[in-house]
Design goal:
The chain is about 25% helix and about 25% strand. By secondary structure, the chain is an alpha/beta fold. The chain is globular and about 45 Å long.
Length: about 230
């Protein structure tokens, strides 16, 4: 692994989902928000002093519309978009697969989800794991499955980005964003929570960044996550 320094982390809520900017030798964007948040993402990047073409890469935690919907507009020869290989069909169709609610609140949320987004083919499809030093960041992109078959996490020194394996807070993370909860949609939420625990034990981050809500302070949230997972 390279000796590139992880120098900063920024999280932006883009309408319904988070995007994260991690900076090392180059800035790397994790998730894009939905397609209708493209202008908002451009504003956030501009305020950070970054033009889209200066990104080292765009890393997608999974292929759902609220996380990958803006990716089609960001792909260039100089900015690769990275995706878990098993989510390829989702993004090339530009349509979410059927979402499995994990409770009554999730069934209500599902009514307001637009499953359509501009289709695209990612630049890089990862089946297992890939180091990030080629994009200017220390760490790795790792496909773990769970929320979707191609769901991936991004692990850098002190920070673990887990996408939609877990969520934080209520009302899309607007209330108590650091309160860990099972995600709205999963065919096996206990499996997803168990993945989060195992990843925390392996990478030993101090913060866990989420697709909705968060961040989670590991020292404060770990007991809650264990309880949700029945451990």
């Amino acid at each position: 692994m390279s000796q590139l320094a992880h120098t900063g982390t920024f999280t932006w809520k883009l309408k319904v989902a988070n995007a994260h900017l991690l900076t090392g030798r180059r800035p790397v964007l994790i998730d894009t928000g939905p397609a209708n948040a493209r202008a908002l993402l451009a504003q956030r990047l501009a305020r950070a002093g970054i033009a889209p073409g200066e990104l080292g890469a765009v890393l997608l935690t999974h292929g759902h519309a609220d996380h990958a919907g803006g990716a089609a507009a960001l792909i260039t020869p100089d900015v690769p978009v990275v995706l878990g290989a098993s989510d390829r069909l989702i993004t090339e169709r530009g349509h979410n697969p059927e979402l499995v609610p994990t409770g009554p609140g999730a069934r209500l949320v599902k009514r307001f989800i637009d499953p359509e987004f501009p289709p695209f083919t990612a630049s890089v499809h990862v089946a297992d794991r890939m180091p990030l030093d080629q994009f200017g960041l220390e760490g790795e992109y790792r496909v773990v499955g769970g929320h979707t078959a191609g769901s991936a996490v991004v692990a850098t020194p002190g920070v673990l980005v887990v996408g939609d394996l877990i969520r934080g807070g209520f009302a899309g993370g607007s209330i108590a964003p650091g309160f860990a909860q099972k995600h709205y949609f999963s065919d096996d939420p206990q499996r997803d929570l168990g993945l989060v625990i195992d990843l925390i034990d392996e990478y030993r981050p101090t913060r866990v960044l989420l697709g909705h809500g968060g961040p989670l302070d590991v020292s404060a949230a770990r007991h809650r996550i264990d309880k949700l997972a029945g451990r």
